[in-house]
Amino acid sequence: FTPTETWRDLWEVLVETGYITATILFLIITASMYSRMLGVAALPTVFGEWITGFDLTLNELMFVYVLLMVLLGTIIETASIILIVVPLFLVVLDSFGVDLVWFGIVTVVGAEIGLLTPPLGISCFVIKSTINDPTVSLADIFAGAFPFAVTMLLVLIILILYPSLSLALL
Asked: Is the pTM of this model over 0.85?
C-alpha cells in the first residue's frame, strides 16, 4: 500500500472485481444454457443443412460469416456475438475441415471491426465517454477509427485467403 491507499480502497476494488467476475460467470452460464438449448432443438443441424443447401465454397461461406460478424459487431459486443453465432456455424465449418484456431481468429477480428464501424460502433462510444472532451465529436472519433477498421478488414481478407498465416506460430 502507498500512504494514499487504505483498506477501504482495497475493499472497494475487491467488491468491483467481484461484480465483474459475477457478470462474466453469468455470461458463461447463460452461454452454456444457450448451447444446450440449441443442441436440444437441433438448431445447429437445421442451420447447417440450410446453409449447405446454398452450395457455398469455404471462401463464400466465410464472406457471409464475416459480413454477419461485422454487422452484429456494430450493435452487440464481441463476447455476446461469439456466444450466439459460433455454435450455429461450427456445424457447417466442420464439413469443410476448418482449423478452429483460425476460425476463432477470424471471428474475433470480424467482430472487432464491427465495434469500430458506425452507426453503433461501441468502441467509439466508449472512447467518446472516456475522453469526455467537448471539442472532440463522435464523428471525429469514427473518422479516426476508419483507417484502423479498413486495415483490419484487409488483414481479415488476407487471413481468410491464407489461413496458414494465422497458424504459422502454432
From this structure: no
